[in-house]
Amino acid sequence: MNGKILVIIDHFKGEALPASWEAVGAASELARSGGGQIAVLVLGAESKPLAEQVFQFGVQEAYYCDDPTLTDYRPSPYAAVVASVARKLSAAVLLFPTTVRGRELAALSAVELGGGVMPDVTELEVSDGKILATRPVYAGKLLARVVCEATPAVITTRVRAFKKPAADPAHGGEPVRVEAVIPEEDIRVKVAGYTRSETGVSLSDANVIISGGRGVSNNPELSPPAGMDEKQAEIWRAQQGFKMIGELAALLGAAVGASRAAVDAGYIPYEHQVGQTGKIVSPDLYIACGISGAIQHLAGMRSSKVIVAINKDPEAPIFKLARFGVVGDIYKIVPALTDEFHKRLGK
After folding, report:
1. Domain spanning 5-186: which CATH class is it, in words?
2. pTM above 0.70, yes or no
């Protein structure tokens, strides 16, 4: 493999997303397999301290661009800088974490550079001088091994598929400042502001996720407030179900997820959706409550290390994927689990 490995760090206001360090870990694996130096690029406000920090992870070079045009994330000016640095370094590989910004930036950077894209990669190696990547296909039912014939190879790494490298505070270095490429007057997108929509533990970073599906609304013992029509009553029951799931999640320090069916029905906001059109997650423990196991949902959580399914229907597809299955009413089982964890954890 000829050329450097360039890792782009995804961060918000100077705080790196954990998936970014996993991308650095993927670069380390690639460097061990095929050689090549690792360079890191950090873009945006407060990026220099973060660029200084990356040397602790065995990185040989670090670059940053703290230009006013990059204070807020906008794809076109960011991709222009990525492409500029990649060309200057003659980068053979570009690695991005598979985050919302990372996926968008990887695609646009590949267009700028004329490179080939390998998304959502779970393993990397060098074979005969070429990058050989493993990635899930057909909603995770199969793993494909693919080779990128174009240069550079633009790769997004699946969250929690690679290990964060160990930090050594004794390692240090001075990052190099690079210039922005597109002036402000040529950037058509303006950021008006931010509103935090996700609360609690992030789905992408969670070690434990507890998710609910359409089954959370099936509790006939709950009496909705007077004056509600049938649909309003259904949503109200589902919200009580997600409160129950939230109590268990809070006890375990877990994130709350949901199936697309639950989101589409208005039970819970979209940011909780796990699946092919939601978040792709790989926690150590995934508890599915009242989720039948549609292929769209399985595609988003199939790589979880341990899957526990709770469902009334013994024929639900989710049981084929789960390591542990409980056939029964989530309104009886989840509170029982919560009570038991309270006792075991002493909380």
Report:
1. alpha beta
2. yes
